[in-house]
Amino acid sequence: MALAPAVMQTTPPIGLIGSEQALMGGSSAALEALLSGFDQARGALQPVSVDMGNVSSSIARGVSGAGDVLQPWQRPGLQAFDLQAALSGALGPQAQAQAYSNFQSSPGQQFLRDRAEQALLRNSAALGGLGGGRVRQELQRQAIGEAQQDFGNAFNRIGTVAQGGLTAAGQEAGLIGQLRAQEASIAGSLEGQRMGLTSQQQRDLARIAADTGMGAANIAAQTGQQVARDRFTTGTNLAGAVGGTTSALATLVNQQGQDLAGTIAAGAGDLSNIIAGAGGAQAQSGQNLAALLANIISGQGSQVASLPGVPGTQQTTGVLGNVGNFLSGVGSLIPRPGG
Amino acid sequence: MGGLVKSIFGGTDRSAQTQQVQQNTQDRALFERLANQGRSDAVALTGAGDENRNMAYQQVLNLLSGTIPQRMQAQQFGNVGAQQQLIGGLPMIQAALMGQPLNFASMQPTQIAYNADWTRQALPQFRTSAQALQPRPAPQPDLSSMLYSGFGGE
Questions:
Q1: Is the pLDDT assigned to residue B150 strictly greater than 60?
Q2: What is the pLDDT of residue A131?
Q3: Is A249 on the interface with B (CB under 8 A)?
Q4: Strands (E), A67-141
């Protein structure tokens, strides 16, 4: 009965190939694990990335926030400073004239002029002299006086506003300086910390790298040794199988020769025995026949010899024969010594 | 003349002698004939016996001569088959050790063929004693040729 072919396709790899595959797989996995561990360690020991951008952004946001907060004081202050400078003539006559013109046409000055004019006109009407020259002079004088009085007040107020803006600008400058100082401090602190970690990390990394290299070398060496042992063992087993087979073949060939020799010897012996037996039987048959023929001839002779003799021609024994016969009978009667 | 002398002078009467001589002569002739018949029958029966025995021997020789080569052939078939199994197993051993696919179909049982025609044997056509004693020209027995027949020599 033919055995079903069993091609091992679904079974795990066996033999030297399977062993080396397993070894290589395990070795590769171990190496990958080592390298992965090394990468993880290296990643864990990477220098701390000091993100000064974030710090700077925070500082910038602080500065911007401070500016935004102080902006309502800063802008009017600056404008007030410019206006006060123009009114004072620090910015030149043209700027001063424009400033005055603007001041004269300002709603405040217009209000003061309208209020003074109405008051003068009501008093003049009560007195009945609206169209007189004095009225017009009085109106001019009153307008100039109030304008002068209000200019001083307005100038002082502008100065107050300008002072507020200056104060706000100073505060902002102070805040910016503080924030920049803090930024510099943080940056310096972080850099110092980073520099401190790097040396330890380098030592750790060096140690881990050495351990990893040692582990990889050990794995490679062990794998190579195991592969070498397996290959040697496989070769030895193959040699053993070949040797065993060769020995068995030699034994079989030798056995075949012995069996054939035995068969030949046995066959030759059997044939020889048969032939010898045949010869012996043939010889015995000849002897038997010869004996039989001799008996026949002998019997014939005896019968011829036993034929009756011719009368008168019988042979007598004579006197000596009779004496011999007598002595023989006497001797037989004498007992033998020791008998 | 003798009879007259014996009648006259008396003497020995020889008629009984003559009669006895004649009787003995007849007896000897009878003995001779019977002995010849006995020898002839003995030779015939012995020859038939020898022939029958040699036929049996020859059949045994033929049987052995036919079966001994078959024995040797069967031994060789078995031995060579065993060697082939051993040789055929080497690649499988190598494949198993190496981890290569194994094909067990290459391992097949071996049945040794044989010819059993030799078992159909029958007795030789022996000559019976009656056949042997049938009247036939009786050759003079040649003992030497009888002794060495079957040996291929004289």
A1: no
A2: 60
A3: yes
A4: none
Closest residue in B to A10 (Cα) is B101
State how far the Cα of B116 lies from the Cα of B121, in Å rounded to an integer: 11
Give the contacts of A113 (CB within 8 A, at least 6 positions apart): A143, A146, A147
Task: Measure the CA angle with vertex B135, ends B129 and B139; round to 5°.
Answer: 95
Q: Which residues contact B79 (CB under 8 A, 6 or more apart)?
A: A252, A253, A255, A256, A259
- Of A100, A266, A281, the residue nearest B57 (C-alpha): A281
Task: Provide the shortest C-alpha distance from residue A218 to chain B (in Å).
Answer: 26
Nearest Cα neighbor of A212 from A23, A32, A26 is A32
Those residues with Cβ within 8 angstroms of residue A286's Cβ, 6 or more apart along the chain or in another chain? B46, B143, B146, B147
| Cα–Cα distance, A166 to A172 (Å, whole number) | 10
Q: SS3 of A27, please?
A: helix
pTM strictly above 0.80: no
- Quote the minimal CA–CA distance from B110 to chain A in Å: 10
Mean of the per-residue pLDDT values of chain A? 79
Residue A1's pLDDT band, with cuts at 50, 70 and 90, is very low
Pairwise CB contact (< 8 Å): B143 & A15: no
Chain A residue with the nearest C-alpha to that of B24: A307
Interface test with A, best of B147, B148, B151, B154 (most A CBs within 10 A): B147
Q: For tokens 């040692």, what's the residue? A: A214
Q: Which residues contact B21 (CB under 8 A, 6 or more apart)?
A: A310
Answer with the residue of higher pLDDT: A298 or A91.
A298
Query: Which of A5, A6, A245 is closest, CB to CB, to B90?
Result: A245
- Interface confidence, given as ipTM, is 0.71
Chain B residues inside the 8 Å CB shell of A310 = 17, 20-21, 24
- CA–CA separation, A155 and A163 (whole Å): 12
B71-122 confidence digits (pLDDT tens): 899 989 999 988 988 898 888 888 888 888 888 887 888 888 888 898 898 9
Cα separation, A116 vs A11, whole angstroms: 118
What is the pLDDT, as a whole number, of residue B152?
A: 44
- Put simply, the answer to whether A310 touches B17 (Cβ < 8 Å) is yes
Task: Give the separation between CA A316 and CA A276, rounded to whole angstroms.
Answer: 56
Give how far the C-alpha of residue A131 lies from the chain's centroid of Cα atoms, to the nearest Å.
111
Nearest CA in chain B to A264: B68
- Percentage above 70 pLDDT, chain B: 79
pLDDT over 90 for what percent of chain A?
A: 3
